Amino acid sequence: MLAQLFKTFSKIGAFTFGGGFAMIPMIETEVVDKHKWITHQEFVDLIAVAQSCPGVFAVNISTFIGYKVKKEAGAMVSALGASLPSFLIILLIAMFFNRYMDVPWVAAMFRGIRPAVVALIAVPTYNLAKSANITLSTCWIPIVTALLIWLMGVNPVLIILVAAFCGYLYGQFIKPTE
Predict the structure, then answer these.
(1) Helix ranges, 31-103 (H)
(2) How far, in Å, CA of 120 to CA of 123, rounded?
(3) How far apart are CA 94 and CA 8, in angstroms?
(4) pTM of the complete model
């Protein structure tokens, strides 16, 4: 089982580009659909927890899944599997990139990757919004939050604290009456 965890998360770490959010569809396919290590609802919950924890998203989620499957050993093996391929790839790129960054086709290749990365992030974001039941009546919350951070320079930690407080109030006073 430990070898399977390492192999699964190594494959995810090696073949997905664009960061943690771009990995979401592949992680879901592997751990929910193929191996059935967790349910879809557990996966959605893990995404929320992994986002709120400090550190790399893919490592966080792989650690949680590894722990659920094989406790401490599973957590370590899964985290190593998720991070080792990226580390090695970035190390190789860093060793050679300075020599080739002025080569026109290399620069064009990196410019071409950018739109694909945006799409790789947009699709799971849309799917997560559907899973979290974000509708047109509630989509103002992430939009206002992004604008507060971007335009007004509001500290994201303050927004998280206010959101936690509002969620608590909602759960205590509003939701039970619905």
Answers:
(1) 40-52, 57-100
(2) 6
(3) 26
(4) 0.59
